[in-house]
Automatic annotation (TrEMBL):
This is Acetyl-CoA carboxyl transferase. Belongs to the AccD/PCCB family. The keyword Transmembrane does not apply. GO terms for cellular component: acetyl-CoA carboxylase complex. Residues 229-467 form the CoA carboxyltransferase C-terminal domain. The lineage of its organism: Bacteria, Bacillati, Actinomycetota, Actinomycetes, Mycobacteriales. Pfam families: Carboxyl_trans. Keywords: Transferase.
Length: 497
């Protein structure tokens, strides 16, 4: 597996000639004779004075800060001097309000400096966290190899985390494992591709594509929104039976969130998993709708369409990402209901639904929810309480699928259509009850005009995002809380003294 050096990484990512070093002479640390010889040898071999390079440059004209590890310098290990350099660079990026691109390549803590070096990961993690708390982007590109305390600190804190194809990435170095346990570490576990499959990282990107990927990412999370889209024409829709909408929402060829993003969004960056080692069915992405940037959470139309705890943890990751980056959040609801299994119960499904509801209704960024198709049960409810709620004409929302409601009320499923009408689940009913704000037309069914529908929906999402951006945070969040306080009440509640 080839290693990517600091200069190679720098030159592949930054605009030509734009790099400016921030590095001062490394901090003097206590050394014995043997360690001093190792440092001198590493400096001579690499032409670097420490295991990290820091500075600033530009990515397609945008000013960014960079922190790049050099594995050739004592295995990219982090001691006091390297950690001080990293921390100072992160703090400067925060003070100057720059996006930060970090690319570690390291075996972890510098053993020659012992426990003091080990504790340096704390101050690096603190600086990165404060950078993120300042609502500034932190983007990570893991290079071969990245292990130990580096992976367990600044290598795992990215808003977006990418990795070099084939890179060895893991907490415990395989050589250490073999020495400790007398057998090789299982093959294929500590690879970038395996971590992507398990939702630990967001993407595996060749160096040749990294610059373009960073450009798309920064277009969404750092660039200003575009102008508002033209208003959508107002169209009167004929009445539609609730059961017709239920059947339409279940068509296998109905466009889902992937189709919406493919035909209705630009600057798309797909993310992966919860960041906690779980791949999930929720789609998480960064994208722009008619120039309006957003974090996108979408329930995918997979077999069965059910949602488990991992999918909701991924949704909560998206909510946190939107909050940290001060980006609007778009939620696409399309689920047949919750996973009903022992694994789901033991995985804390109910608690994840509750935490999603809690996080979303109190989120301080603009939020737009879209009932794209089926909206069944707790996993649908968990993604509803936004500032604005759109519904496709055949989108619907119910405590259970109509067949389940029929089983409870009539002890059979034959009355599903009757229950669908009686419960007020269709888009027109949801508008009347104050749950939905706008119905997105289908002519007559999104599956019959998938591209046109996706583009129509995208334009309406963009219009809502643009309008919400102009509302002060306190006013917007107060209106959201009051909205959900009043749903179902004939008269508004009397204020308390």
């Amino acid at each position: 597996m080839s290693r990517i050096g600091t200069v190679e990484l720098r030159d592949a990512v930054l605009d030509d000639g734009s790099f400016r070093s921030w590095d001062d002479t490394p901090l003097a640390v206590p050394t014995n004779e043997a360690y001093a010889r190792e440092l001198a040898k590493a400096r001579a071999a690499t032409g670097r004075d420490e295991s990290v390079l820091t500075g600033e440059g530009r990515v397609f004209g945008r000013r960014v800060a960079v922190v790049v590890g050099e594995f050739g310098f004592l295995g990219g290990s982090i001691g006091v001097a390297a950690a001080e350099r990293i921390t100072a660079a992160v703090e400067r990026a925060t003070a100057e309000r720059l996006a930060l691109v970090a690319s570690p390549s390291s075996g972890g803590t510098r053993m020659q400096e012992g426990t003091v070096a080990f504790l340096q990961m704390v101050k690096i993690a603190a600086a990165v966290t404060l950078h993120k708390h300042a609502n500034l982007p932190y983007l990570v590109y893991l290079r071969h190899p990245t292990t130990g305390g580096v992976f367990a600190s600044w290598g795992s804190l990215g808003h977006v985390t990418l990795a070099q194809p084939g890179a060895l990435v893991g907490f415990l170095g395989p050589r250490v494992y073999e020495q400790l346990y007398g057998e090789p570490f299982p093959a294929g576990i500590q690879t970038a591709e395996n971590l992507l499959r398990h939702g630990v990282i967001d993407g595996v990107v060749p160096l040749a594509e990294l610059r373009e990927t960073l450009d798309r990412t920064l277009t969404v999370i750092a660039d200003e929104p575009g102008p508002p889209p033209p208003p959508a024409p107002v169209t009167e829709l004929s009445d539609v039976d609730a059961w017709v909408s239920v059947v339409a929402s279940r068509r296998p060829d109905r466009p889902g969130v992937k189709h919406l993003l493919r035909h209705g969004a630009t600057d798309l960056v797909l993310l992966s998993g919860t960041g906690s080692g779980e791949a999930a069915t929720t789609l998480l992405a960064l994208a722009r709708f008619a120039g309006q940037p957003a974090v996108v959470l979408g329930q995918q139309r997979v077999v069965g369409g059910i949602v488990g705890p991992a999918a909701l943890r991924e949704a909560r990751r998206g909510m946190a990402l939107a909050a940290e980056l001060r980006l609007p959040l778009v939620l696409i609801i399309d689920t047949a209901g919750p996973a009903l299994s022992a694994d789901a119960e033991e995985g804390g499904l109910a608690g994840e639904i509750a935490r999603c509801l809690s996080d979303l209704v109190t989120l301080d960024t603009p939020t737009v929810s879209v009932l794209l198709g089926q909206g069944s049960g707790g996993p649908a409810l968990a993604m509803v309480p936004a500032d604005r709620v759109l519904a496709a004409r055949h989108g619907w929302l119910a405590p259970l699928p109509p067949e389940g409601a029929s089983a409870i009320v009539f002890r059979d499923t034959a009355h599903a259509a009757e229950l669908a009408a009686a419960q007020g689940i269709r888009s027109a009913d949801l508008v009347a009850s104050g749950i939905v704000d706008v119905v997105v037309p289908e002519y007559p069914d999104a599956a019959d005009e998938p591209v046109e529908f996706s583009q129509r929906l995208s334009g309406m999402i963009a219009a809502e995002l643009h309008a919400l951006r102009g509302v002060p945070v306190a006013k917007r969040t107060a209106a959201r809380l009051q909205r959900y306080r009043r749903i179902g009440l004939v008269e508004p509640p009397m204020p308390r003294d």
